[in-house]
Amino acid sequence: MAFRPFAFLTGSNRKDRAEWRAGSGDPVLRLAPDGEILASSDGARTLIGGETNLKGRSILDFAGRDDRAALKEALSRALQNTRAEAAERLKFRLLRPHAGPVFTEIALVRDGHDLSALLRDRGPELAALRQSRGASDKASAADEARPDTAMLADLGHELKTPLGAIMGFAEAMRAEAFGPLGHDKYREYADLIHATGGHASDLIAAMLDRAKLDAGRYELAPALSSPAPLARTCAEMVRGEAERAGLDLNVEIAEDLPETMLDASAVRRIIVNLLNNAVKFTADGAVTLSVREKDGAIEFSVIDTGVGMSQTALARLGERFTALHKNGVRGTGGTGLGLSMAYRLANLHGGVLKLTSAPGEGTVAHFVLPVRKSLKEMTGANITTGPADIQSQLDRVAQYRRERIGRDAA
Questions:
Q1: How far is C-alpha 211 from the chain's CA centre?
Q2: Rounded to an integer, what distance in angstroms lies between the CA atom of residue 354 and that of residue 393?
Q3: What is the DSSP annotation of 229-240?
Q4: Helices (H), 175-183
């Protein structure tokens, strides 16, 4: 559908007003390239601020914290678009000074050196869609029961501040920075406060990232990096847990691995999740992390001698992992988000995560990351893991078991 251009009133007494060509009731803004509001319609002032004077403010001031980067990029893309009828569209959470936030769509078109923007409140449409689906669709009903992702993000940010203070106080008490605690129980309690605070902080971080992934707002920050030091760091992060479990942790990293574009934080989360799962479900033996280059890609492999998974469990991978195994072999719990997030983060990198396993025979996890030397090579290269990938994994497991049975018989 063609996107109709905006028409701004330019009379001397109306230069700060903006109108949609179809009428004056629509919420319309004229924006500078950096997002500064140059003019606004009556409808825009009603939607955003009531009596608030919008001129001179930035549209970014009224965007939810997690949406600002995406809105800034949309402004930039719209400025680069020379087609008058091609609008850059974005849905985001609009913050209003005198009312609650609303789910809003903004359509941006270039207007000379500035931008024209049309805002549409999509909240009623979203509520109506959810209501219509909720009566007949159990999955939609479950979605309705979940907290809003934007609310989760805001709640998470609010919780991180007091948790940081609690952990800081616990650290000071553990170090007896202001004198001895006096009783061993106090020291024990300080350790427990710090440990549980750290666990809660990890849960919040997982919750925030999951909310961003579900909302399509998780953004990678890739840089040209060497995979070898990153892999060693991941192994050291898990080594203490492996040693406490009585497991050997082996690290095998090939020499002269090429640098590649990756988000170190996201890749670290993938590998540490795989290593933690391996430790969690291995009663005795070893966990091995190997890194090598193969066919123009970096292959991170985590191999364990643990309990393994059935074909049914493998087929359900990508769901929350603890729905299959709530506790590890030592009763270790988890958030249920780890492996599911690892799949999503691997796909965002244009890579793929595959697991092969069989009951009693351990699990092998392969995270394959294509070697790319620039951001341009990463664009649009996402790979997804679909039913065909899962079936190929099951075929490999079945073949492995047939070969093993044959060797044992011989």
A1: 7
A2: 7
A3: HHHHHHHHHHHH
A4: none
Task: Name the residue ranges covered by the structural domains of the chain.
Answer: 7-126, 146-214, 223-409
How far apart, in whole angstroms, are the C-alpha atoms of residue 273 and residue 306?
15
Between CA 115 and CA 94 the distance in angstroms is 18
Local structure of 157: helix, strand or coil: helix
Could you read off the pLDDT of 287-335 as tens digits, one per residue? 999 999 998 999 999 999 988 877 766 666 554 444 444 455 544 544 4
Task: Tell me the C-alpha distance between 292 and 201, whole Å.
Answer: 33
CA distances from 295 to 28, 55, 234, 369 (A): 52, 56, 24, 11
CATH, range 223-409: 3.30.565.10
E strand intervals along 127-235: 223-225
φ, ψ of residue 363 to 5 degrees: the values are -135, 145
Q: Among positive and negative, which fits the CA dihedral 272, 273, 279, 285?
A: negative
Sign of CA dihedral 270, 273, 278, 281: negative
* Mean pLDDT value of segment 214-226: 79
Tell me if 201 sits within 8 A of 167, measured CB to CB.
yes
7-126: CATH number: 3.30.450.20
Burial status of residue 236 (CB atoms within 10 A of its CB: 0-12, 13-18, 19 or more): exposed
Q: Distance between CA 219 and CA 70 in Å, rounded?
A: 9
Bridge partners (DSSP) of residue 79 are none
User: What would you report as the CA-atom Rg of the chain, rounded to the nearest whole angstrom?
Assistant: 26
Whose CA is closest to 68, among 79, 58, 77, 78? 58
Report how far residue 288's alpha carbon sits from residue 286's, in angstroms, rounded to the nearest whole number. 6
**pTM greater than the 0.90 cutoff:** no
